[in-house]
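As noted in the main text, all predictions were made from sequence alone. Below is one such record, for DUF1985 domain-containing protein.
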Amino acid sequence: MIIVTACSAACETCQLKISLWHNGVCRAEIENVVEAENLPENVNVAETENVTQNENVGVIEEPLQNEDLDQYLLHPRNTWPYDITITVHCKLKLIHDIKEVLGSCGELEEFKKSCFRHYLDLPHYMRGLFQAQYIHNLLLCQIRFPGANVGEMWFVIENTKVRLGKREFCLCTGLQFGVLPDIFLKDYVLVKDGFHMRYFAVDGYLLLDQLLNRFLRGEFDHKGDGLKMALVLIANNNLFTQDYLRQVTYWLMLLVEDIQAFNSFPL
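Prediction:
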């Protein structure tokens, strides 16, 4: 969900700065999402170096003559009508709360150095919820055609093929690609003197709602605790779009105890 959300937010403002990450290296700071493409593979580019771009960030292909793009749809058009409600859990209010709480405890500057820093630039008038229905409708337009890379997502929009690949993902989200560590395979064990042990009961479940309420109270015991809570909350709520009544993602609780590892994940 976050891919389209970040991209649409940037396209609406045309001035949202987003860091372009590729193979773990920050390539450029750009002012407009449609400026970046054709970055070289495995070549380091200094963060301050100007990068000349010739193509849009998203690869767009015009259909072949008389090509019927509907034949490639994963979901045929006759299946598109639905009478269900799309439930949305990721609320932009969390961004405002993070600014307020971390600003009051002196940890906002550290958040601005994190992998989620670009969320702070979302325009203030984008109140309420992310556009889950828009994303749902976009996914209905997903296509798969002969020769398409299995590592990319393609959509048909206004009779054109539009690609969402690794470059577009890294640009729109500021996140990275890499080999996943084995942290997912480990049983969750409380980190000694970690914020879970210090702020919450050491047994039983920890719900996102409990974590949010404690975060909103502020007044943290140790410097850095507010930042850790904010990172877990924004990952769970805005990236994973989880309901606050669900449990936290426990491997995130392990990962966030090492801020450097969290920001460079999954490398």
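Residues 1-56 have pLDDT under 50 and may be disordered. The chain has two domains: 2-82+129-173, 93-126+178-264. These features were considered when defining construct boundaries for the mutagenesis experiments described in Section 2.9.
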